[in-house]
Amino acid sequence: MESGPAIFAGTAFTLFGGALLLWTTVRTLHREPVAYGVAPRTAVALTSLFGAGFLLLGVWCFARL
After folding, report:
1. Using CB atoms within 10 A as the burial measure, which of 32, 33, 55, 64 is most buried?
2. CA 42 – CA 48 distance, rounded (Å)
3. How many whole angstroms from its chain centre is CA 55?
4. Residue 35 and residue 64: Cα distance in Å, rounded?
5. What backbone torsions phi and psi does residue 38 show, to the nearest 5 degrees?
6. CA distance 50 to 60
7. What is the DSSP string of 4-63?
8. CA triplet 58, 4, 2: central angle to 5 degrees?
9. Are the C-beta atoms of residues 43 and 33 closer than 8 Å to each other?
10. Which tens digit of pLDDT belongs to each residue from 12-43?
């Protein structure tokens, strides 16, 4: 009964974290701002941190199955 929500949450977190890391990487390589109004290094650091966090949270959800 609990595997359905865990699979959904793991998929959502993993896809969002991976997409956030990919988006941050592409924006950084093209030298475009990651977030407007924020220092570039701060924006890259925070979005990378949150992307990795969501990716790890998704992996943790899959490991709980």
Report:
1. 55
2. 10
3. 5
4. 34
5. -125, 145
6. 15
7. HHHHHHHHHHHHHHHHHHHHHHHHHHTT--SSTTS-HHHHHHHHHHHHHHHHHHHHHHHH
8. 95
9. yes
10. 999 999 999 999 999 999 999 999 999 999 99
